[in-house]
UniProtKB/TrEMBL annotation, chains A, B:
Pfam families found in the cross-reference section: HxlR
InterPro entries linked to this entry: HTH_HxlR, WH-like_DNA-bd_sf, WH_DNA-bd_sf
Residue ranges of domain HTH hxlR-type in the record: 15-112
Official protein name in the record: Transcriptional regulator
GO molecular function: DNA binding
Keyword Protein biosynthesis: no
Keywords assigned: DNA-binding, Transcription, Transcription regulation
Domain of life, per lineage: Bacteria
């Protein structure tokens, strides 16, 4: 991203880049779900157990939203019984280091 | 942040680091306000003009929240009439490159 792009973003809060960024990061469970899938794909039931404090309704809604945003993909395996797993898309893998890096922000502000 | 810290964060969504990170980034206007103050301190009236689509109530609320989080500081100048400006704290300046970097996320996902 060059300086010119930065200027455009900074001068328009409704800029699609800012909106898209916030859509992906914000939401109590989004980063958490992404991090849980950073090492391997997971079935819904596994994710349900890994995110114990979330209601079923909210987890399904967040997974759907992340799929719609292009962050996650559902992969169906032709097995009996059928197996469906959630995994990160290629784009999500591309930005994963940045997503992990932003944790430094919280860390910096927690230090007294 | 070492691998161990990452593991801790990724295994607990209520981890204060994750919560603090989201508090700072999330909120439609927070990143926008931070970027507006990245080059110089601004008076309330200037910010009001720079963020034209926000209601006065919400802008004041967001500025207060960012001050409480330690992202912004209010500086009072002993002038007549008194001058008060908002500016980034030292910690905010420290993480500014990361805050700017996360725009790459939205950019990546907007590319078809």
């Amino acid at each position: 991203m060059n300086d010119n792009t930065h200027t455009q973003i900074f001068s328009d809060v409704s800029h699609p880049v800012l909106k898209k960024t916030l859509d992906i990061i914000c939401g109590k469970w989004r980063l958490y779900i992404i991090f849980q899938l950073s090492e391997q794909d997971r079935r819904y039931g596994e994710l349900r157990r890994m995110v114990p404090d979330v209601s079923e309704k909210v987890l399904i809604q967040e997974l759907k939203a992340l799929v719609a945003l292009g962050v996650l993909q559902k992969k169906s395996y032709n097995e009996v019984p059928p197996r469906v797993e959630y995994g990160l898309t290629e784009k999500a893998r591309e930005v994963l280091p940045i997503l992990q890096q932003i944790m430094v922000i919280g860390k910096t502000f927690l230090v007294p």
